[in-house]
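Provenance and format

Records in this collection were gathered into a single text stream. Each protein contributes a sequence line and a token line. The two records reproduced below are adjacent in the stream.
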Amino acid sequence: MKIELSGDFLKAEDCKGDEVVEFLNEGEVAELTSPEGKIKKVLNFRIKINKEEKTFTPNKSNLKTFVEEWGDESSKWIGKMFKIELVKVKVFGEVKNSIEAHPVEGQAIPEQVVKL
């Protein structure tokens, strides 16, 4: 399959750090090629954040958190929610914000998501 990257990926710089996100699908595997030519497989999920749909590519740390909380079958994550926290990380010698995911306990929809 041909992977085309669109502009709807969730990025740390698009977040305030308190958003609640909902999984909309079980994810799709994509292959990315690094500038060095190394191929890396990632898992992209469709999510809902601030009434908008985006694509989210969790890092290994976030995936580990999801597996510990909800199990290793991502189809069971559909409808599950997590809260975003922004944390500082060093990437190629540069400090940047990164998304750290925290599963929402009880999975009741928080008031900030239910705005009619």
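Adjacent record:
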Amino acid sequence: MNQLFYGDNLDVLRDHVRDETVDLIYLDPPFNSDTNYNVLFKSPTGEEAKAQIEAFEDTWHWNESAERAFDEVINGPHSDASIMLRAMRGALGDNDMMAYLAMMAVRLIELHRVLKPTGALYLHCDPTASHYLKILLDAIFGAEYFQNEIVWHYSGWNAKLNTKFNSRHDVIFYYSKGKEPRFNSYTIPWESEAEYVRVRKQKVNTEKSGKKFVLSDAGGGRRVKRYLHEAMAYGKPVDDVWDIDKINNSSKESLGYQTQKPVALLQRIVAASSNEGDLVLDPFCGCGTTIHASEKMKRQWIGIDVTHLAIALVERRLKEAFSGIVYEVHGVPKDHASARDLAVRDKHEFQKWITATIGAQPYRGGRKGMDRGIDGYMHFRDADRKAQFAVVSVKGGSITPSMVRDLKGTMEREGAALGLFLTLNDPTREMIKEAASAGIYETGGQKISRVQILTAAEILEGRRPQVPFGFSEGFAKATREEDDDAQGSLL
């Protein structure tokens, strides 16, 4: 069964993925020493919402985890990777880049282990680290198994720069596990007769009947006559430079995720290196584009991410795009006991999980203690189409009526129309009374309690806040996928 895992991908790979069981791996591990990788949400006005959710903080710093990863590789059985990583540390020292490479090396070794002999790995690189990653891949997979450096080229606004050219491409390294990888060479349609002539540099002749033809090279100095419509019907073979539009704010696919990749890009990779029923793995699945493409193309899949927010986004995307989809989720609360366990282990992850589950935007105001009593936002429009919002307060421990009073104060300070109090434990009678004293929010004939209390147990059973029509969830709605087999037209 298709599977979605919350957790560290290194642990998930070791505990749940057997040797040589995966047909295709795609990964896009982010690295930029000056950037946090956020999921950005938009308010109903189209502006950036107050909350910027820290979904994948750039935490590649040299610390105990990096040292442990380095030691695992150095003392492990993969001698080539050990030699290469030791040389890199000697050259780079103990800095952020070296921490990233050590953490990636131990994971790439695991990814090599789970690939079938006919399997393939596609690594989407940040330009600040791509040259180092290719050296690591050569050491782990073998330089002889390097197949392609794919250039994903996309359009965009070109500014006049004083010191360099505009950057308009990403790099994707394609490595195979063995000498005979599964690979499906295919073509895409020619856009026009003019494009065919320009690219193929063939002269077009015309018969008396009006039919157009070209003379193609048949080898040995011979030429063969081919009618133009037949020559074009074969299509244009795909090379290693891919012109595919990037996701932007106006894209139908856009979910508001900063590093979201287009489905067309992942469909091309899935089509090239897997067949129907094969298993595709994405260990940094983010907003789930690899999973989306795999499901659409009838592949089995495994997705892994280290944040509850990403898992909630992927689940919502799948359910909206594919009617009746079936899959298993591991590592997220499924009952009150597991919700309590998460709250005890990591209160911030509990906050993000429960807030994202109701469709709100988890929020952390940066440093601990600086969130001003706000754990999330939920945006909606009133009957006059005016943008409104609710503030969310999450409590994973003991609760008192004063906490509901604090939420009411936060609502007044922030100008929020509604307040949502999410709690692990059942509220007392006094808390329910305190919430009721906040009164009713009315718009367009709808009457809604201004302060609503929901427990983790109720949320797990499917209860959601009452919000006016025009409710704008934290995650943009995914495009519904229709059942069809016309995959070739999408590549």
